[in-house]
Amino acid sequence: IKRIGVFTSGGDAPGMNACIRSVVRTALYNNTQVSGILQGYQGMIDNQFIEMNSRSVSNIIQLGGTILKTARCSEFRTVEGRKKAYDNIKAAGIDALVGIGGDGTFTGIEVFSREYDIPVIGIPGTIDNDLYGSDFTLGFDTACNTVIEAIDKIRDTAASHDRLFFVEVMGRDSGCIALNTGIAGGAEAILMPEKETAIDDLIERLEGAVAGKKTSTIVIIAEGDQNGGAYNIAKHVKTKFDFYDTKVTILGHLQRGGSPSSFDRVLASRLGFSAVNLLLAGETRRVVGLKGNEIQHVPIEESINNKAFKLAPDMIELSHILAI
Ligand code: ATP
């Protein structure tokens, strides 16, 4: 392998830059050139490649987002689009790819590497932590820290006014952010897509909080919860439970940005390093990840075809116990 192409794709996540830096420097250290591909798969189709050297990744380890930009690209889903991408990649002298993103991104390189003989490695980068093959994805820890900061602030108001706050966090099909931040932020209840909670059960929990003389109550809701989002839940709860003044906060995209945490920077650096080492060792079609404190790699198909379930049962039980 003479030249590795690195790109970010799908939603941005804190730690992507730290990961790009690690890919670039590990490759250069091993006398392998690196091209940065801008805008994910779109950049392959539009011929947007930039030469990367050690200095092009200076001063980025602390930056959120991605210096290579990211995009969703429908053309890459077509045979013609991928042919264009391959011709451009070949012409640029790129003979291996490292893609940082979510399962859509992994599906893209999986299809691509079956059609064309080019080694590929995927690195899990998404704040949702919903990928199989790594205990943690890049950006998850940072996003949780951002949410906690917000919950702490909301708690000040909730406690001062005897209010009930419904806080909606990201997680279309994963309750990881909700469960972690619910425990870290002392939420009275946590609603997650993986675990159905009936509104009546939630109300019972809230009545328990009142009976226990709590002066503020915070309910964390993952956006993918079956009850249909924070506003909807607040409306339903209000019809039967009006002890507190009720407020809704949707944290939205502020969870995606920001300077990566120490954990995410280290994870990003380790995964970037491993991805390049795998390619140089002749591996392909793997997703690198963290298992315990070890770096592991699994086949891309395995990562795409398995649903990650990362809600530790002890954490679910704990979230109930600590809310009394
Ligand atoms: P996030 O978790 O933030 O959504 P993601 O990587 O899952 O990240 P997607 O938009 O689903 O984000 O996928 C990123 C890109 O991967 C798509 O825009 C598309 O270009 C490519 N892609 C996804 N699925 C396929 C597929 N079946 N075939 C070819 N390319 C695909």
UniProtKB/TrEMBL annotation:
Cellular component terms (Gene Ontology): 6-phosphofructokinase complex
Catalytic residues as annotated in Swiss-Prot or TrEMBL: 128
Catalyzed reaction equations: beta-D-fructose 6-phosphate + ATP = beta-D-fructose 1,6-bisphosphate + ADP + H(+)
Record-given protein name: ATP-dependent 6-phosphofructokinase
Phylogenetic placement of the source organism: Bacteria, Pseudomonadati, Bacteroidota, Sphingobacteriia, Sphingobacteriales
Recorded metabolic or biological pathway in which this protein acts: Carbohydrate degradation; glycolysis; D-glyceraldehyde 3-phosphate and glycerone phosphate from D-glucose: step 3/4
Gene3D superfamilies: 3.40.50.450, Phosphofructokinase domain
Keywords in alphabetical order: Allosteric enzyme, ATP-binding, Cytoplasm, Glycolysis, Kinase, Magnesium, Metal-binding, Nucleotide-binding, Transferase
Organism from which the protein derives: Albibacterium bauzanense
Cofactor: Mg(2+)
Family label: Belongs to the phosphofructokinase type A (PFKA) family. ATP-dependent PFK group I subfamily. Prokaryotic clade 'B1' sub-subfamily.
Record-annotated Phosphofructokinase domain positions: 3-279
Binding site for substrate: 126-128, 163, 170-172, 223, 247, 253-256
Primary role: Catalyzes the phosphorylation of D-fructose 6-phosphate to fructose 1,6-bisphosphate by ATP, the first committing step of glycolysis.
Gene: pfkA
